[in-house]
Request: fold
Amino acid sequence: MSYRNQPEESEKMPTGIPYIISNEAAERFSFYGMKAALAIFLANYLGVLGGKSMSEANATVYVSFFNSAV
Reply:
């Protein structure tokens, strides 16, 4: 049995490319949604769960730290 050592010549796009593009779009959508939800959670709902609620300015600082880390 012989194995290929180079790809076949083709004029078409590889079949996996649409899956990669849709996965990347979903990941970006999730990231930006998480950023918005994180700021709202920190400023409004953290105190309800037993933590200390924070001002919008402090929530923005923590979201900026999150963005830097990610």
